[in-house]
């Protein structure tokens, strides 16, 4: 039985959400194919309690010189540690977001700041090289975008502009997770007349990915 951690970054709305429908297609297929797995979901756009703020920086600086934390720092650190432990314990990661200006939503960036912790998810070798501590895990990135960045609708390959996917992959690599792939629903705004066909094809890819992830 695997532990699956879903990091979803998109505000909940009552209107049609392409991102949510794309994700639901994937996760429904996953649940059907892996009924024994445990799935934990966090919508970090709705709840992001541990930003990289002055408390977090103070905790980091005090750790460098082995100084005790004050009560506010201790509460922050203990609560944040639960999220780090949860990330370390997971076997699979699912990152879900719409593209925002060629990047991921700021809340997802904040989440990655939480879990990218020296001595817990990566460390520095004696040569000063970053080395991951999380091995044997896998991750997938589900992303929606109005434009076509990955040739999904037959356009040119503009994946170099997808800075968010590159960033997630780079951070995971530092932490030792190299089994990482992307799944995209994109081009609906660029080709609105073909949006239904584009989404149908994306849903098919999501269903297949859910079965095999």
Notes on the protein architecture:
The chain has 213 residues and is an alpha/beta fold. The protein is built from six helices and seven strands. The strands form two sheets. Strands 2-1-3-6-7 form a five-stranded parallel sheet, with helices on both faces. Helix 5 links the parallel strand 6 and strand 7. The model has no long low-confidence stretch (mean pLDDT 94).
Structure characteristics:
213 residues, alpha/beta, 5-stranded parallel β-sheet, two-stranded antiparallel sheet, 7 strands, 40% helix, 19% strand, oxidoreductase, oxidoreductase activity, acting on NAD(P)H as acceptor, electron transfer activity, EC 1.6.5.-
Radius of gyration, in Å, reads 18 Å
Spatial strand sequence of the major β-sheet = 2-1-3-6-7
Number of strands: 7
> What string, H for helix and E for strand, traces the elements in order?
EHEHHEHEEEHEH
**What is the overall pLDDT average?**
94
Helix content: 40-55%
Strand content: 15-25%
**Largest beta-sheet characterization:** 5 strands, parallel
Global structural class: alpha/beta
| First and last CA, distance | 13 Å
Overall 3D geometry?
Answer: elongated
Number of helices: 6
Low-confidence stretches: none
């Amino acid at each position: 039985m695997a532990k699956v951690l879903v990091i979803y970054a998109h505000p909940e709305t009552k209107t049609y959400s392409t991102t949510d429908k794309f994700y639901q297609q994937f996760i429904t297929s996953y649940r059907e194919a892996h009924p024994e797995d445990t799935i934990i979901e966090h919508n970090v756009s709705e709840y992001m309690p541990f930003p990289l703020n002055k408390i977090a920086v103070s905790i980091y600086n005090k750790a460098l010189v082995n100084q005790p934390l004050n009560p506010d720092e201790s509460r922050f650190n203990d609560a944040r540690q639960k999220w780090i432990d949860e990330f370390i314990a997971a076997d699979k990661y699912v990152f879900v977001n719409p593209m925002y200006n060629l990047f991921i939503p700021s809340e997802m960036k904040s989440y990655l700041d939480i879990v990218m912790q020296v001595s817990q998810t990566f460390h520095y070798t004696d040569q000063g090289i970053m080395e991951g501590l999380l091995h044997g895990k896998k991750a997938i990135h589900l992303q929606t975008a109005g434009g076509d960045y990955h040739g999904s609708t037959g356009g040119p390959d503009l994946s170099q502009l997808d800075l968010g996917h590159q960033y997630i992959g780079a951070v995971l690599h530092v932490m030792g997770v190299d089994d990482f792939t992307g799944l995209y629903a994109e081009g609906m705004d660029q080709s609105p007349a073909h949006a239904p066909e584009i989404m149908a094809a994306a849903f098919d890819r999501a269903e297949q990915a859910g079965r095999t992830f």
